[in-house]
Specification:
By secondary structure, the protein is of the alpha/beta class. The chain has 2 helices and 8 strands; from the N terminus they run E-E-E-H-E-E-E-H-E-E. The longest helix has 18 residues.
Length: 156
C-alpha cells in the first residue's frame, strides 16, 4: 500500500460540488492499494501513519504524531482519500501505467478496511468517495509531505 501524507491546517473533499469530507489541522492521507496487498499492509500502513512524528512540539521540532499534535494529547484529523494514481509507473514513456494498482473491487475492499481501522483507532476521520471525481482543497502546513509504502506481500 502506498500513502502520501500532507500535513494540513485544513482540508476538504468535494464531489459534484458537495462537501463529502472535511478536517481542520491534521493529515490529508492519499492512499492506494497495490496488487498483492492484504489486510497486513492496511494495518502496518495505518500504524505508521498514526505514530509518525511530523507535528511540531513547543520547541518547534517535529516530535508529535497526529494523535498528540498539540502536545496535550489532542488529536488532529485524518482526511483519507483514495488515489490509485499513486501506483503510476511512468518509466516506459509519457503515458503512465497503473498496472500495479489493485483491481477496483480489491482496491475498494482495502480502502474500506483502511478507513474502518482508522475510525476504530482515531477520533477524527473523514473520507473522500472511492472512485469518484473528487476536488481536494487543502492548506498545506509547512509544507510537509511524506510518502510511505508498505510493499505488497510476495506470492508464496
Amino acid at each position: 500500500m502506498i500513502a502520501l501524507l500532507q500535513r494540513v491546517r485544513q482540508a476538504r473533499v468535494e464531489v459534484d460540488g458537495a462537501r463529502v469530507g472535511e478536517i481542520g489541522a491534521g493529515l490529508l492521507v492519499l492512499v492506494c492499494a497495490e496488487r498483492g496487498d492484504t489486510d497486513v499492509q492496511v494495518q502496518k500502513l495505518l500504524a505508521k501513519i498514526l505514530k509518525l512524528r511530523i507535528f511540531s512540539d513547543s520547541a518547534g521540532k517535529m516530535n508529535l504524531s497526529v494523535k498528540d499534535m498539540d502536545g496535550r494529547g489532542t488529536s488532529g484529523g485524518l482526511l483519507i482519500v483514495s488515489q490509485f494514481t499513486l501506483a503510476a509507473d511512468a518509466s516506459g514513456g509519457n503515458r503512465p501505467s497503473f498496472t500495479q494498482a489493485a483491481l477496483p473491487d480489491e482496491g475498494r475492499r482495502l480502502y474500506d478496511a483502511f478507513v474502518a481501522r482508522a475510525r476504530a483507532a482515531h477520533p477524527v476521520v473523514q473520507t473522500g468517495q472511492f472512485a469518484a471525481d473528487m476536488q481536494v482543497h487543502l492548506v498545506n502546513d509547512g509544507p510537509v509531505t511524506i510518502p510511505l509504502r508498505v510493499p505488497p506481500t510476495l506470492a508464496a
